[in-house]
Amino acid sequence: MSRYFHSASIRYAVALWLATVLALFVAFLAQLEPAQWAGITVWIMFIQNPRINYSKIIWWVFGTVVGALMAVALTACFSQAPELFLLSLAVWLAGCAAAATLVKSYRAYGVVLAGYTCAIVSMSAADHPDQVFQLAVSRVSCIFVGMAAAVLLITLLLPTRQHWRETLRHLEEQLKATLTQAAKALAPDSTHPVHFTWRRMVDRLSTLEHTLDMTTAESAGSRLHAAQARSLVATLFCLLARAQAVEIHLSRPGGSHPPHEVHELMGRARALLTACAEAVSATEAPDRTFFIGDGVSKLREELATTRRLLPSEPTPEVVSAQFILGRLDEILKELAHAAQDWAGLFGPWTARRASHLAAHRDYHTAFVYALRMLLAMALASAIWFITEWPAGSQFILFIAVVCSLLSLLDHAPILGFAFLKSALFCATMAYVETFWLLQKAEGFPVMALALGLFLLPAAYAYRHPRLHGSAVVSMLIFYGLTMPANQMNYDVSAFLNNGLALLSAAACGFFSFHAVPSLSPASKRSGLLRTIQNDLAQAGRGEGALSEQGWTSRMFDRLRLLHQTTGEHEPPEDMRGPENVVLTSLQLGLRQRRLRALLREGDMVPGAAELVVTALRQFRRLSRQPEAVADSLRSACARLQESLENSLGTLREGSLAALAEMREMVLLIETPALLYPD
Q: Is position 353 within any domain?
C-alpha cells in the first residue's frame, strides 16, 4: 500500500482541506462575498510551496494590495469608456506578465498577483462601477483570510523542515568544489587543451540565489545570516572567475612560462586553496583564523614584493608575470573573504560587502508573454462586445487569471490537452458537488465534508509533477462554479453559463500561448550571445556598467540559461562554441572593469590614460568588427609599451598592469576557440 499511498501527501491533503474549511468559515462569519476567493487563496499557497516564508507573505500582500488599488483607479478613470477600460486592463496585465519573467522567486508571483487581482476586482465591478471600492475591500479581505488560514494550518500540521541546514550543506559543497577548482586552475597543462569540466558546479551555484530567497527567512538564525550567505555566493562567483583567468592565460599555446618566483608563489597559493577546501565543514563552527591561518597575508605581501621587483623592460614575459600576479592577488583576497563569510554563517560576523547578485533579464521572453496576454484579452473583449454575452465579464476575468498564472510556467504551452481534460473534470466535479450533494443538504459541516470529498483526493493527486502545472487553474474552475457562499445559488442555467465561460477562457488562454510560440532554443542562444556583445559594447563606453561582482554573477547565470537550452543532461558537442563565447566574454568584461579601476587610481605614465580610454571605446564595434577591436587594442599596447620604455622609474606599476590587461584582451579576442576546443 505504501507504493500508492504516501503519508506525507495524505498529511498535506488533510492540512489543505482543513485550511480551506477554516478560511471559508471565517469568510462566512465575516459576511465576505464571494467567499470562494478565500478557498482559492488557500489552494494556491499550498500548491506553490507549502512552507512558511516571510518573503512569500510580503510579496503576496504586495501583489494583492497593488492590484486592488489599480482596479479602483482604472474603474474610476474609465467607468464610462469600456473600450479604454479594457485596453488599460490589458496593458496592465501584459506589463505584469512581462515583469514576472524578469524577476525570480516569490517576487514573480507577487507581480502576477498584482495583475490578476486587478482583473478580479475590476471585472467584478463591471456592472456596478460605483461599488468597486467595496468589492476591492471584500476581495482583499478574502485573500488575507485565506493566507492566514493557510499559514496557520501549515504551521500546525505540516512538518517543519530544516531548510537552512540543507542550505548550509549546499554552501559547504559549493565552497569545497570552488576552492578545489581554483587550485586546479593554478596548475594547467599547456600541452593538453583545457576542457570545461565544471559546468554543473556553475549551474548549481547560479541557482543558490533563488534557494537563499526561499530559505533565509524561515527562522531567526537564517534571517540573521542571510546577507552573509549571499556574500559567500558572490565571493565564490568571483573566485571562480579569477581562477579561470589564470587557467586561460597559462593554457594558451605558445604562451610564455612564468618566472621561477612566480611559479613558486602559484604553488603555495594552490596548496593553501587545497588545504582550505579540506578544512571546510558544516558540522563544526569554523574559526576564520584557523581556516586560513596567516598564509593569505604573507602570500599577498610576497606578491606585492615580487611585482615591485619585476624587470624594468615591459617584455612579454614581464607583462605575463604582471597579469598572473594580479590575478593571484585577487584570488587570495577572495579566499580571505570566503573564509570570513563561511565563518560568519556560524558566528557574529557581518557581511563583508553588499551583495547584489545580478541575473540575466530576458526581455525577448518578457515581450512574448506580454504579447500573449494582449492577444488573449483582445480576443476575449471582442467576443464579449460582439455577442453581448451575459457571462462576458466572468469570461474576461478568468482569461486574465489563466494567462497570468500560466506566465509563471516555462512549460505552459506543452500542457495542452492534458490541462483541458483536467479543467473539464473539475467542472464536472463542481456540478456533482453543487447539485448532487450541496443542494440536498444544509449547514456548514455538510458543505465542509462535501468539499472534502473532492479536495482531499485532488490535493493528493495534484502533487504529482505531471499534474502540478494545471493544478491552480483547474481548481479555479471548481471554485468558480461551486461558488460556496452563505446563500447558495442552485440555478442550473447560470451554472452552465459560467461553466462555458470558464472553460472557454481556459481554451482561449492556451490558444494565445500557442498562437505566440516560445522562442526556440537556437533563438534563445543567439539572443543570449547578442545581449552579451551589447553589454560589452556599453561597458566599453562606460554606460551602465555593472560592478565586477554583478558582471560575474550575471555571466554565470547566462551560462546556466545557455545549458538549459539543450534540454539534455550532457550538453552536445556543438554547445562548446557558445560556452566558449560566454566564458571569453566574462573575462573580457572583467578586463574592462579592471582597466577602469586603474584609470580611477591614476597611477600611470603620461598619456597612458588617454590610450586606455580610447582602447575601451573601441568595444562598440565588437559585434561587427572584432578584428578591428583587436587591432586597436594591439596598437594601444604598442604605444603604451613605448611610453613605458621612455619613462623608466615613474608611475610604472599602474601602466604595466594596464598593458597586461590589454594584451590579455587582444589574446581573448583573437584566439577564443583555443579555450575549450571540441
A: no
Over residues 647-673, the pLDDT tens digits come to 755 556 788 889 999 999 998 888 754
The CB density around residue 488, as the number of other CB atoms within 10 Å, is 13
Same domain, yes or no: 510 and 528: no
Q: Lowest mean pLDDT: which of 134-138, 202-206, 208-212, 557-561?
A: 208-212
Classified as helix, coil or strand, 416 is helix
Strand extents, DSSP E, 495-635 = none
Spatial distance between the Cα atoms of 615 and 607, rounded to a whole number of angstroms: 13
Residues 6+ apart with CB under 8 A from 45: 60, 146, 147, 150, 151, 154
CB atoms within 10 A of CB 134: 11
350 lies in some domain:
no
DSSP state of 432: I
Of 604 and 512, the structure prediction assigns the larger pLDDT to 512
DSSP class per residue in 328-385: HHHHHHHHHHHHHHHHHTTSS---SS---------HHHHHHHHHHHHHHHHHHHHHHH
Q: Do 103 and 179 sit in the same domain of this protein?
A: no
Domain count, the chain: 3
Residue-wise DSSP of 165-215 = HHHHHHHHHHHHHHHHHHHHHTS--TTS------HHHHHHHHTHHHHHHHH
Cα distances (Å, whole numbers) of residue 117 to 49, 53, 597: 20, 21, 47
What angle, 0 to 180 degrees and rounded to 10, lies between the N-to-C axes of helices 36-48 and 471-482? 170
Q: How many CA atoms lie within 13 A of 577 on its CB side?
A: 5
pLDDT score at 227: 83
Are residue 383 and residue 436 in the same domain, yes or no?
Answer: yes
Residues 85 and 154 in one domain: yes
Any domain includes 413: yes
- 657 vs 139, 323, 545, 660, CA distance in Å? 62, 7, 21, 5
Residue 443, phi then psi, degrees to nearest 5: 100, 150
Instruction: Judge whether residue 408 has pLDDT over 60.
Output: yes
Q: The domain containing residue 532 runs over which residues?
A: 521-674
485: left (phi over 0), alpha (psi -120 to 50) or beta: beta
In a domain, 34, yes or no: yes
With helix as H, strand as E and coil as C, how does 301-342 read? Answer: HHHHHHHHCCCCCCCHHHHHHHHHHHHHHHHHHHHHHHHHHH
Question: Is 229 in contact with 216 (CB distance < 8 Å)?
Answer: yes
CATH number, domain of 227, equals 1.20.58.220
Q: Which of 515, 548, 573 is the C-terminal boundary of a domain?
A: 515
